Amino acid sequence: ALAVEGGGDLPPEERARRERARESAEGIVAYDADPPLRRATFALGGQIVLADLDSGTVELLPTVSGGFDPRISPDGAAVAYVAGRALRVVRDGADREVVSEEEPTVSWGAAEFIAAEEMGRTRGFWWSPDSGRLLVERVDVAPIDRWWISAPVTPMVEPTGIRYPAAGTANAGVALAILDRDGGGRVDVDWTGGEGWEYLADASWTEAGLVLTVQSRDQRVLAVLDVDPADGAVEERYRMEDEHWVELVPGVPALHGDRLVTVEDLGPARRLCVDGAPLTGDGVQVRRVIDVGDEGIVIAASREPTTTGVATVTWEGDLEWWANDPGVHGAVVGGPTVVDVRRSLMHDGVHVVIRSQGDQTATIDDLAEVPPLELNVRLHRIGDRELATALLLPAGDEGHEPLPVLLDPYGGPHAQRVQQARSMFHTSQWFADQGFAVVVVDGRGTPGRGPAFEREVRGDLAGPVLDDQIDALDELARLEPRLDLGRVAIRG
Q1: In terms of DSSP H, where are the helices of 21-126?
Q2: What is the pLDDT at residue 8?
Q3: Which residues lie closer than 8 Å to 193 by C-beta, 6 or more apart?
Q4: Rg, C-alpha atoms of the chain
Q5: 115-124, 355-364, 366-375, 455-464: which has the minimum mean pLDDT?
Q6: In what order do the strands lie in the sheet with 319-321?
Q7: For 116, which of 63, 106, 392, 471 is 20 to 30 Å away at the CA?
Q8: Taking the alpha carbons of 40, 41, 42, 44 in that order, is the dihedral positive or negative?
Q9: Degrees (nearest 5) of the Cα angle 218, 219, 220?
Q10: Beta-strand pair 377-382/296-302
Q11: What sign does the dihedral 443-447-448-454 (CA atoms) show?
């Protein structure tokens, strides 16, 4: 056992990272492992821990306090982590600072706010495949305006100042450098070049090469850049453009040898592409790329917006779904081993199955508490726009009395509420059990329906969204006359 408190005493940077990841749990909430899965590292209470997965032993590494985001080297011999505004490496029992600066607005190794909050990139350093060097992000928040946040319940506490890049204002200055793990041999990477790229959306350093994903300030142009680690020279490999915005999709761009895997909005679908040529058709909306291997590409995708399935796409474009039962499915792939994760409306919790070489080898029990709720939900496709809609009524409802209506949307882009998984409706069911008919509508701007449907909110995140809530409510009231339209509220 570890004599480490895993709860409240978190470094501010780690607390911010968890807030951006919507992570409210305590203890071990994330880890990083070497490719053979022999060693893993994680942060706990601001200390860095190394676990030997073969023996089951753990040790506290000799690090400075306040460490977060540890990443193990591919050879398993070193752990890099961030503490304060510096990047550090532990190897052979010795802790060493790799890079830092005295300037209080400058930090090394941590993702800037906009990348972590809006682009899904929560890391700011990457190991080289040979474990000898690191690509490290330098962030300078000096150009960003300062905001002050106070808590009304503690008026005696001084407001906290944060650097917040509000829309239309300056972003952080982001630079990249390649350094030896001992801090020497610095090579700067001029990723902005003469193109004026504003955002570093992602980076990847594998045997196939060092690749950056960058975007313009208006996010209508995305480029994939090859970096020469020897001198930091940058060359554009591929470019994507869109009149509205280029969507960032988890798992891509990815290299497999000389082939570039992307996901692009082409016609009515978000399609899997290799070197610009689409592999999937109009009826499949790709949500993320899970794995790229010799036999093909594993994707999470939707044929219908309330469900997400996992499929393998061969390099020739043949697609095979792993399962046909509706639900929200995902997977993790590591060589011949697959972890298959499924949620549905038919069962509580998560079903997790481990397969190796195609055969089931184990299951992982879901030990999460099951809310004491009896789900009473019906899914509909409503109106001319066939809006995905869920209607929740009180458990044990006998269908006699009119019910006040509570609209319970998310209402923003990039998030769905109406999905075929029980966990999506626990909170809504609780409100229904208080005597409401709860209506959840995924209107324009939500994913899973194709590029055009998502882009209908460009320039107006309120009007189309509210119109869809009203249209769905009116149509649903015709299907279920017990909805009392004289008593309607909204939460969210």
Answers
A1: 113-118
A2: 54
A3: 234
A4: 24
A5: 355-364
A6: 285-293, 296-302, 309-313, 319-321
A7: 63
A8: positive
A9: 90
A10: unpaired
A11: positive
Which helix (H) or strand (E) segment holds residue 434: the answer is none
Prediction pTM value: 0.92
Ramachandran region, residue 244 (left: φ > 0; alpha: ψ -120 to 50; beta: rest): alpha
Extract the tokens encoding 332: 């993790």
* CATH class, range 377-490: alpha beta
- Report CA 223 to chain centroid distance, whole Å: 20
Residue whose pair of structure tokens reads 């950056």 in the numeric block: 212
Q: How confident is the model at residue 397 (pLDDT cuts 50, 70, 90)?
A: confident
- Assess whether pLDDT exceeds 60 at residue 314: yes
Q: Using alpha carbons, list the distances in angstroms from residue 50 to 30, 33, 78, 246.
A: 13, 10, 10, 39
Question: So what's the pLDDT on residue 362?
Answer: 93
Domain boundaries, the chain: 12-280, 377-490
The token pair that represents 22 in the structure block: 């919507």
Q: Which of 420, 468, 463 is nearest to 443 (CA)?
A: 468
Instruction: State the Cα angle at 114 between 450 and 291, rounded to 5°.
Output: 50
Q: What are the pLDDT digits (tens) for 369-379?
A: 999 999 999 99
Residue 29: pLDDT band (50, 70, 90) is confident
H or E element: which one contains 14? Answer: helix 12-20
Q: Pick the closest to residue 126 from 213, 50, 15, 21 (CA basis).
A: 213
- CATH number of the structural domain 12-280: 2.140.10.30
Q: What number is the average pLDDT over the span 393-404?
A: 90
Per-residue pLDDT tens digits for 429-486: 999 999 999 999 999 999 999 999 999 999 999 999 999 999 999 999 999 999 999 9
DSSP string, 111-166: --HHHHHHSS----EEE-TTSSEEEEEEEE-TTSPEEEE--TT-TTSPPEEEE---
Q: Looking at the chain, how many residues does it have?
A: 492
Asked whether residue 27 carries a pLDDT value surpassing 90, the answer given is no
User: Which tokens hold the place of 73?
Assistant: 């080297």
Burial degree of 339 (CB within 10 A; 0-12, 13-18, 19+): middle
